[in-house]
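Exercise 7b. C-alpha coordinates:
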Protein backbone atom coordinates (compact mmCIF):
# COMPACT_ATOMS: atom_id res chain seq x y z
CA UNK A 1 0.00 0.00 0.00
CA UNK A 2 2.95 2.28 -0.23
CA UNK A 3 3.93 2.74 3.43
CA UNK A 4 6.92 0.36 3.39
CA UNK A 5 9.62 1.90 1.25
CA UNK A 6 11.23 -0.68 -0.93
CA UNK A 7 14.48 1.16 -1.48
CA UNK A 8 17.25 -1.36 -1.92
CA UNK A 9 19.40 -1.62 1.19
CA UNK A 10 23.01 -1.66 0.15
CA UNK A 11 24.65 -4.48 1.98
CA UNK A 12 27.84 -4.70 -0.05
CA UNK A 13 30.68 -5.15 2.36
CA UNK A 14 34.18 -3.87 2.08
CA UNK A 15 36.29 -6.45 3.89
CA UNK A 16 39.21 -4.89 5.72
CA UNK A 17 42.30 -5.66 3.72
CA UNK A 18 44.84 -7.23 6.06
CA UNK A 19 48.26 -5.74 5.55
CA UNK A 20 51.24 -6.90 7.56
CA UNK A 21 52.48 -4.19 9.92
CA UNK A 22 55.51 -2.26 8.72
CA UNK A 23 58.49 -1.15 10.74
CA UNK A 24 60.65 1.93 10.29
CA UNK A 25 64.36 1.29 10.66
CA UNK A 26 66.18 4.34 12.01
CA UNK A 27 69.79 5.33 12.37
CA UNK A 28 70.76 7.51 15.34
CA UNK A 29 73.43 10.16 15.43
CA UNK A 30 76.44 10.01 17.74
CA UNK A 31 79.63 12.03 18.08
CA UNK A 32 82.14 9.30 17.21
CA UNK A 33 81.13 7.15 14.26
CA UNK A 34 82.94 8.44 11.16
CA UNK A 35 80.68 9.86 8.46
CA UNK A 36 82.25 7.56 5.83
CA UNK A 37 81.41 4.53 7.94
CA UNK A 38 77.73 5.54 8.11
CA UNK A 39 77.69 6.11 4.34
CA UNK A 40 79.17 2.65 3.87
CA UNK A 41 76.53 1.08 6.15
CA UNK A 42 73.73 2.72 4.16
CA UNK A 43 75.19 1.46 0.87
CA UNK A 44 75.91 -2.03 2.16
CA UNK A 45 72.73 -2.83 4.12
CA UNK A 46 70.13 -0.53 2.60
CA UNK A 47 71.08 -0.65 -1.08
CA UNK A 48 71.56 3.09 -1.41
CA UNK A 49 73.85 4.65 -3.98
CA UNK A 50 76.65 6.88 -2.70
CA UNK A 51 74.84 10.20 -3.05
CA UNK A 52 71.60 8.92 -1.43
CA UNK A 53 73.67 7.42 1.39
CA UNK A 54 75.61 10.65 1.89
CA UNK A 55 72.41 12.69 1.99
CA UNK A 56 70.73 10.42 4.59
CA UNK A 57 73.92 10.34 6.68
CA UNK A 58 73.92 14.16 6.75
CA UNK A 59 70.24 14.19 7.75
CA UNK A 60 71.02 11.90 10.71
CA UNK A 61 74.05 14.04 11.60
CA UNK A 62 71.99 17.26 11.59
CA UNK A 63 68.60 16.06 12.91
CA UNK A 64 69.70 13.32 15.30
CA UNK A 65 68.01 10.46 13.48
CA UNK A 66 66.41 9.48 10.21
CA UNK A 67 64.30 6.66 8.85
CA UNK A 68 66.49 4.68 6.48
CA UNK A 69 63.88 2.18 5.33
CA UNK A 70 60.49 0.59 6.02
CA UNK A 71 60.24 -3.19 6.12
CA UNK A 72 58.31 -6.20 7.44
CA UNK A 73 59.16 -7.15 11.03
CA UNK A 74 61.55 -9.92 10.02
CA UNK A 75 63.48 -7.84 7.49
CA UNK A 76 63.64 -4.83 9.84
CA UNK A 77 64.94 -7.02 12.65
CA UNK A 78 67.62 -8.46 10.36
CA UNK A 79 68.73 -4.99 9.17
CA UNK A 80 69.02 -3.72 12.76
CA UNK A 81 71.02 -6.80 13.80
CA UNK A 82 73.32 -6.51 10.77
CA UNK A 83 74.03 -2.80 11.36
CA UNK A 84 74.56 -3.26 15.12
CA UNK A 85 76.86 -6.23 14.58
CA UNK A 86 78.85 -4.53 11.81
CA UNK A 87 79.26 -1.35 13.91
CA UNK A 88 80.30 -3.25 17.01
CA UNK A 89 82.84 -5.29 15.02
CA UNK A 90 84.34 -2.00 13.80
CA UNK A 91 84.19 -0.56 17.33
CA UNK A 92 81.85 2.26 16.40
CA UNK A 93 78.94 3.25 18.66
CA UNK A 94 76.49 3.63 15.76
CA UNK A 95 72.94 2.74 16.85
CA UNK A 96 70.16 1.40 14.70
CA UNK A 97 66.61 0.83 15.95
CA UNK A 98 63.19 -0.13 14.64
CA UNK A 99 59.70 1.13 15.43
CA UNK A 100 56.25 0.04 14.28
CA UNK A 101 54.97 2.49 11.64
N1 LIG B 1 77.98 12.69 13.93
C1 LIG B 1 79.00 11.85 13.33
C2 LIG B 1 80.28 12.65 13.12
O1 LIG B 1 80.25 13.84 13.17
C3 LIG B 1 78.54 11.27 11.99
C4 LIG B 1 77.36 10.38 12.12
C5 LIG B 1 76.30 10.47 11.20
C6 LIG B 1 77.28 9.43 13.12
C7 LIG B 1 75.21 9.64 11.27
C8 LIG B 1 76.18 8.57 13.22
O2 LIG B 1 74.09 7.81 12.33
C9 LIG B 1 75.16 8.68 12.28
N2 LIG B 1 81.38 11.97 12.83
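Sequence design result:
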Amino acid sequence: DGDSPDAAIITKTRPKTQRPPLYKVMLLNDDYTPMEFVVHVLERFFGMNHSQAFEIMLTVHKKGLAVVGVFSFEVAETKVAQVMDFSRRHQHPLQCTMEKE
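Instructor comment: The pocket of L-tyrosinamide is lined by residues 27-31, 33-35, 38, 57, 60-61, 94 (CB under 6 Å). The mean pLDDT is 92.
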